[in-house]
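=== Structure Prediction Worksheet ===
Name of assembly: unnamed complex
Input type: mixed (protein and possibly other molecules)
Chain count: two
Listed entries:
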Amino acid sequence: KAGVTQTPRYLIKTRGQQVTLSCSPISGHRSVSWYQQTPGQGLQFLFEYFSETQRNKGNFPGRFSGRQFSNSRSEMNVSTLELGDSALYLCASTLTGGGTDTQYFGPGTRLTVL
Amino acid sequence: EDQVTQSPEALRLQEGESSSLNCSYTVSGLRGLFWYRQDPGKGPEFLFTLYSAGEEKEKERLKATLTKKESFLHITAPKPEDSATYLCAVQTYTGGSYIPTFGRGTSLIVHP
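=== Predicted Assembly ===
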């Protein structure tokens, strides 16, 4: 079974630009979550999508947005990039069962903002 | 506010030297505690889920335990390939789904 895939793996952008990241979940998983990981803040939850609807959102500004398509693939968009947006962006595909969810992470997209 | 604290931040062991990593948490309504392993430049890899105090799970040289306030990841006779950052996360039920809160991780280096 193929794992979670994320594209691109690396991105370099300049301040003020916008960026779109893509995530394809494990086949059959309907929930996709996005996280930002930085050395200073660790892993922080951005948002979760389930059946094309945003189900939860973390404490990030409105410049961070996402969507999910009918095939469960998800995209994340960051507008007006700032230097502090440089991070590893991780997508997690969720398998539900046993009263809680187990998340399987993709390899991440390394975003560098210059 | 849910809090997860991992200790130590960094740990250096000699090959074969057993030790434990700690994850203490303060949450309302724990639905599960997860352990992940993360190698540099990669996404976290799922290791264990623990649901209730007293529960234990094992995988190769790793054993995870859970109490009402903390979890331990015991590493028995570690090898250099066990070197990684180990993350724990607690999951609570928020807004119709389960949202994890991650600790900052313990960076483990095992010397041959």
